[in-house]
Amino acid sequence: MKIKISILYFLLILIALSISIFLEKSKESDIKQEIDKATVLTQTTYNSVFNTYKFAAQKDYYSLMTTQEALEKLKEFKFSSNEKRKAVIRGELYRLFIKKYEYLKTLNVRQFHIHTHKSESLLRFHLPHENGDSLVNIRQSVRIANTLLKPVFKFEGGRVFPGFRYVFPIIYNNEHLGSVEYSISFDAIEKMLKVTNLYYAYQLHLDKHISYDRVFKGYKGFFEESIFGNEHYVENRLLSKVSDKMTTDTLINKINLNLKKSDSFDSLFNKYDNFSLPVFFENSAYIVSFISIKDTTNQHAAYLLSYLRDDNLLSIEEKYKSFYILMLLAILAIAILIYIILNQISKIVKQKNLLEKSNNTLQSLMNQQENIIVLTNGKEISFANEKFFNFFDFKNLKEYSKKYKCVYENFLDLDNHFTIKNEITNKNWIRHLKKLSQDKRIVTMRDKNLKLHNFSVNINKSDNNLYILNFTDITDTVKEHKKLRLKVVKDKLTGAYNREYFEQNYQLLINKAENKNHKLAISIIDIDFFKKINDTFGHDVGDYVLVEMVDLISKHCRSSDKLIRWGGEEFLLLIDLENESALFNILEHLRNYIDKYNFSVVGKITCSFGASIYNEKEDILKTIKRADNALYKAKNNGRNQVIVFSS
Amino acid sequence: MIYNYLITFFLILNIPLFAQNTKVLKFAPLPTKKASKNIEEFIPVSKYLEKKINIKFDYIVKKDYKDILDSFKNGTIDIAYLGPLPLVYLRQNYKHMKPIISFKQSNGSEKYRCVIAKFKNDKYKIERKIKVALTQPLSTCGYYMTQKLLKKKYNINLDNHLYNYEMSHYKALLASLRGDYFISGAKDSIALKYESLGMEIIEKSELLPGFSLVVNTKTVSKKDIERIENTLLSIPKKYYKSWRGIASRGMIKSNLNDYKDLEVDFSLIPQKGNI
């Protein structure tokens, strides 16, 4: 049992673990879905903002390409070898476009830069005195524009600032004159990102190779190490409003610190690909997205970070927390239930064993009883002792139940003993049996040898509508009782019934006859001249004559006719008559037989018969009286004759 | 475990001590609009000082030289970066000041000149009033020297022409380059940068002492002044050469005598333009 419990609990733990793993995976999947959305959204928003500036740059480029004066100056610059003249041209170009540059600045263009066809700096509007330097090895975008003569739109590092570059080749009358560049700072990108998408914040973390390593030495102070490690830098907070805001923003700092603690952060960060991570703290949830911005060589140049407060993550966390709690509660409930069930089973088993033991003890005890003992609810038997099974010759209750439903089926309708008949049915027999007095609570059953047995039934109610029926075999007692009863109702001398019998049974006989639609006739038989016999032969012979007479009449009567010694030499014969008219013949036949019979010692004797028929519901004594009158008439008429009283 | 507690206890006890060793000096850069640019030039210098002598700068941007003077007076500025004229202005109004370090020029020389420059294509027409772009009222190359140079070149009085303060040398030069002005007064080294844009220098001044670090002797101890001076003067070349801006040129010990020729009646310098 203990092993079974252990196995069950082990299985339960296994199930709990499996569900936990499943829930964890589901939660991760839900969170991943959420954060992937943020990644895509940030990327899309960034692309959209980048392209917005691209369109603005394109528009201005087209405008420049229609400025004849500028193109002529550029052409002159290209072909001039006079440095002083070139300086003046540069100044003229500056004068020509300074207002345009100031306008472009209002559109967040940080740098407006014209390059020579050799990829040298021709004129930097943001730093006009810095010019003439070669950008070939520094600025891929400028090199591509001036060699492949195609526009380049990329994020790129530089000698002073890294920026979002839009570089266009300048071709005038099929002459390549140089290129023009519009460069946007991150502050401008950030401004537009916030307009497009109401995220909490955006940040740019520049790869060291395109920022710190590339800028003029004197400009290295523009950059500070990123919180995410020395391979990335951010623009100095003294120079960038966005950086300044980010550095002093306590929420951003907390989020970044939490990010660094994340297990997967380092591996994802060093992949230089897009990713997002959830950050949970202080009852809030944020998604921080890292978008890898590539440069013109398609290498990782910077990470654009977006910080989005996402309460959906909290909902997901809450949802799965609830699932976990529910699961734990369910597991706990199941465990408790298992414990209770097993406990109950154990108790039941113990009880069953105890019960079995008790039953066995009880069975053993019962089997030792002489009486038949049955436990029944009246419809079927729950228990019976060995005596019961031996009596009916069944091995057990199962076998008995195949033939009989309950013990009442074995009760026989004999001697007026209790049985199922009339108003006593298989549904109420116990109730009826209980109502009887103990002396009447007798049943007759036939044993395996078909021998009849009488049982006195003792009923005791057990619990749950079960009754214990105790059958005590009183067959001998009943027999004795019958014998005794017989003794009481028989004449000692002749063996005929006596008056006692008549008193006890005349009504029964009447009822019996009436039930058959018969009549009951009473005939008084008187031995003629009996006194003379006594006087002549003595009382002993007289007694013997009486005995012989009873014997003779009994042999010539039916079993249903009852001969009663009424007194001395007078007998009453109670006759069950099917036909009234047969009475005279029956009696006449008997008289004739007696008349012809040769009695031992005394020889021939005769009898006189007086008879009458019982009238329904009359007093029996009246019937006897009429019979007696008829006898008197028979005596007066000469004896040895039958007179039936006629009304 | 106990060892860590002891160290922590020791550190806590010594916090005041440590705090005492790191001195913070309130530093006023040039009072230009893009103060951040000026500050960035001093970042390497201040980092060096902090590393060497535990003195760090706390930058306090002032709107103009008068503001710097007032701050010197009320002790809210310990050290400032000043050109010659502002230095003289400060000296005239506040005696507890001392120039300790002067920065060399980009060409390595210890002194510089003020110039007036114009765009090459622009022609001077005597009959017309010219527009002059100036730096700041207290800038040496501003009203003070430009007035002298215009007199020297065209024999004109600046007061009879139009002028405005653009608040920096670059802006003054760019203003002329843009065509908003005819002439700009600026520092020679800066003006030279704009030669590549067609600006030509038409007149130069005599040699003037360079920009200097000026300390407030009332708020900075003699010992600290000495320490700052010695440290800056002993910076190895490889260090300051790697820096950006003015500090990369090198430094010399300042000499108050260099300013004796710059006796100015500041009341005659207009504080704003006449355009």
General description of the model:
- The complex is a heterodimer of chains A (647) and B (275).
- Chain A is of the alpha+beta class and 647 residues long.
- Chain A has 18 helices and 21 strands.
- Chain A is rod-shaped.
- In chain A, strand 9 (275-281) and strand 10 (284-294) form a beta hairpin.
- The two termini of chain A are 94 Å apart.
- In chain A, helix 15 (530-537) packs across helix 16.
- In chain B, helix 5 (143-154) links the parallel strand 7 (131-134) and strand 8 (162-165).
- Chain B has 275 residues and is α/β, with parallel strands linked by helices.
- Chain A binds chain B through residues 84, 87-92, 94-95, 98, 123, 128-129, 131-132, 216-222, 236, 238-239, and chain B through 36, 39-40, 43-44, 119-121, 170, 174, 177-179, 190, 193-199, 242-245, 248.
For the largest interface, the chains and their residue counts are:
A-B, 25 and 26 residues
Largest beta-sheet characterization of chain B:
6 strands, mixed
Low-confidence stretches of chain B: 11-19
**How much strand of chain A?**
15-25%
What structural category do the secondary elements of chain A indicate? alpha+beta
Helical stretch tally of chain A:
18
Overall number of strands of chain B:
13
- Determine Rg of chain A (CA atoms, Å): 66 Å
Give me the Rg of chain B, rounded: 21 Å
Provide key terms for this protein:
heterodimer; A: 647 residues; five-stranded antiparallel β-sheet; 18 helices; rod-shaped; B: 275 residues; alpha/beta; six-stranded mixed β-sheet; five-stranded mixed β-sheet
Summarize the structure.
The complex is a heterodimer of chains A (647) and B (275). With 647 residues, chain A is α+β, with helices and mostly antiparallel strands. Chain A is 48% helix and 23% strand.
